[in-house]
Specification:
Chain A: It is an enzyme of class 2 (transferase). Chain A: This is protein-glutamate O-methyltransferase. The structure holds two protein chains of two kinds. By secondary structure, chain A is α/β, with parallel strands linked by helices. Chain A has two domains: 66 residues, Chemotaxis Receptor Methyltransferase Cher, domain 1 (Orthogonal Bundle); 198 residues, Vaccinia Virus protein VP39 (Rossmann fold). Chain A is built from eleven helices and ten strands. In chain A, strand 9 and strand 10 form a beta hairpin. By secondary structure, chain B is an alpha/beta fold. Chain B has one domain: Response regulator (Rossmann fold, 3-Layer(aba) Sandwich), CATH 3.40.50.2300. Chain B contains five helices and five strands, in the order E-H-E-H-E-H-E-H-E-H. Chain B has a five-stranded parallel beta sheet with strand order 2-1-3-4-5, with helices on both faces. Chain B starts with a strand and ends in an 11-residue tail after the last helix. Classes of the chains: A alpha/beta, B alpha/beta. The interface between A and B is medium-sized, with 23 and 22 residues.
């Protein structure tokens, strides 16, 4: 059993490094997530692991602990309404604005094991005829390097491919491999993944036309939420779109974004970013 | 209340499936092979059918082919539930008239997800 002191130091580190809020009374969750790390790092228990970190705060190990605490649970076509709205309403607008000059760039921010990014790629692949000649790129990032490694393989268990994915999409976009199902290259070509922390996104990510950041803010502290919304705004093209998860809002972001009517969870960046940010 | 017919020659699977599907708000009936299922359907068409493949007397493929020829037999949403998980088996089932496909082993989450995809139940509001 982890004592209060241990939970406190883990909470502080999770908040500092990733903005992750560990709700009171979820000690069991921390213990469950730390168990495999303690085992693979050669410690007798989670307690021993935290004691070791208290004495030698090794960065690599802290990072592994904190990454394990982010919520990775996700599935294909989770909360599909904003994905459909993107395909039917937003993408045609972007395609017209871009008129084949610059690529349309989509960011799945906090993508976990990649299902959201791959869902978008499947939709694009299904509509590739009407998207002919338009350059589109999806980038998925997550703080957890293990999740990114898994996302990159595009390989999922039989349980994972049955959550949210219709049988028609399964046989269209995946091929069986051993006891797993692997995405076909036709889908893989749309997406690239890299590890990234939303509190300080890498400069080289570039600018995006739409950011899907769903079910991420809800696990963060209020400060981290506010900071993340501001960071995402700096990565959005003028009038770019931000999509949040159910129950998540732009509260705390000042007037960096405005709500769009008719699309729950979809926001647009306000145009004059520079002046608003200075204010 | 919507109704679902669970067709499987394993009493254990029927029991597990019944518990899950009842929890989704369905009235559940059971049949242990395709012939028995046809009889039940001809008396009263259910809204959904969870269907095993390999069964004595009449298997799942023959059942769904026959059902789809029956008056009103195009109505029920048929979800196959089987251990035959290779592409040719899946394609054969879809051609025979199956709407969705659950690969065994399954759990409550998968059944719920598949029932949502075919529109038998609404999108749930999950927290987080």
């Amino acid at each position: 059993m982890l004592d209060n002191g241990a939970i406190k130091s883990i909470s502080a580190e999770a908040r500092r490094r990733a903005g992750i809020a560990i709700p009171k009374g979820q000690t069991y969750l921390v213990e469950a997530r730390l168990a495999p790390i303690a085992r693979s790092e050669g410690y007798e228990s989670q307690e021993d692991l935290i004691n070791a970190l208290a004495q030698v705060p090794e960065d690599r190990l802290w990072r592994r602990v904190v990454e394990s605490l982010a919520d990775h649970e996700t599935w294909f076509f989770r909360d599909p309404a904003p994905l459909d709205h993107f395909m039917s309403d937003i993408l045609p607008v972007l395609a017209r604005i871009k008129a084949r000059k610059a690529p349309i760039r989509i960011w799945s921010a906090g993508c976990g094991t990649g299902q959201e990014a791959w869902s978008l790629a499947m939709l694009l692949e299904e509509h590739k005829d009407r998207l002919a000649g338009i350059d589109i790129e999806i980038v998925g990032t997550d703080i957890c390097s293990r999740a990114i490694d898994r996302a990159q393989t595009g390989a999922y268990s039989q349980f994972e491919v049955q959550r949210g994915l219709s049988i028609h999409r399964l046989i269209e976009h995946f091929k069986p491999s051993g006891n797993q199902w692997v995405l076909k290259d036709s889908v893989k070509r749309w997406v690239r993944f890299e590890r990234g922390n939303l509190l300080k996104p890498q400069e080289n990510l570039g600018e995006f036309d739409i950011i899907f950041c769903r079910n991420v803010l809800s696990g963060m502290t209020p400060d981290a939420r506010k900071h993340t919304l501001a960071q995402l705004a700096t990565r959005l093209a003028p009038a770019g779109y931000l999509v949040l998860g159910p129950g998540e809002t732009i509260a705390g972001a000042g007037d960096l974004y405005r709500s769009l009517t008719g699309a729950r969870g979809v926001y647009a960046r306000t145009m004059d970013r520079q002046s608003k940010q200075a204010a | 209340m919507k109704s679902c017919l669970v067709v499987d020659d394993s009493r254990v699977i029927r029991k597990v499936a019944r518990r899950i599907i009842e929890s989704l708000g369905f009235h559940v009936d059971e049949a242990s092979d395709g012939a028995e299922a046809l009889e039940t359907c001809r008396a009263a068409m259910p809204d959904a059918i969870l269907l095993d493949r390999n069964m004595p007397v009449m298997n799942g493929i023959d059942f769904v082919k026959t059902l789809r020829q029956d008056p009103g037999g195009d109505k029920p949403v048929v979800i196959f539930c089987t251990t035959e998980n290779d592409i040719p088996s899946i394609t054969e089932a879809l051609r025979a008239g199956v709407d969705e496909y659950i690969m065994k082993p399954f759990d409550a989450e998968i059944v719920q997800s598949k029932f949502q995809q075919v529109g038998l139940i609404g999108e749930e509001r999950r927290a987080g």
